[in-house]
Design a protein that fits this description.
Elements: E1 4-11, H1 28-47, E2 52-59, H2 68-74, E3 80-82, H3 88-102, E4 108-111, H4 120-131, E5 137-141, E6 147-152, H5 171-181, E7 186-188, H6 198-206, H7 212-218
Parallel strand pairs: 1-2, 1-4, 2-3, 5-7
Antiparallel strand pairs: 4-6, 5-6
Amino acid sequence: MTSTTILILAKAPLPGRVKTRLCPPATSEQAAHIAAAALLETVRAVRSVSGAHAVVALEGDLETGISAVELCAVTADIPVLPQRGSSLGERIAAAHADAAALAPGRPVLQIGMDTPQVSAELLEQCRDRLLGTAAEAVLGPADDGGWWLLGLRDPLKAAVVSGVTTSRSDTGFRTRQALIDHGLHVATAPGLRDVDTMADARAVAETMPGTMFAAAVGTVG
């Protein structure tokens, strides 16, 4: 089995700085708790992937945010790198490059903290789709037209998507086209709903009964 890096692009869960689109009806404190729960669920899923090495590219400081003790504990043996770049596209490309520098030659699957329903089994399926076919990239579409996963055999190729505008209904299409335009064969991973709004959070929480994420979402009236 080829060793793979799973890169999590994340923000420290600080009230007023994260998941602001959940407000209202959530308060900034509730939104930060939801974000912290989403990140914890995501890291735990990644840690369960066989043959994978987790890396976190972080904006902010986990030690000063919500659930600091839990987040610092779950990432204690994981490289946590600062995000670099001004736009999200630039930060994505830089995070792939930084992950590649840690482990040259290792493929990278990159996700965010907006899909806490992700499972180790799904991530293994995405990895196998990238490495078990002729694909050089794999893209997982999000329900809002964006994407939740970008996998690359050569993570330095993430530079080709650095100029793609994010948070648009056609971001997924434009990202795929940028990869294709640069000669990459792109496979498609299963789609997921990412958590941007409170409606998203509630819909995703319904699929995750009994989890920290569902509990955090349930505090919002």
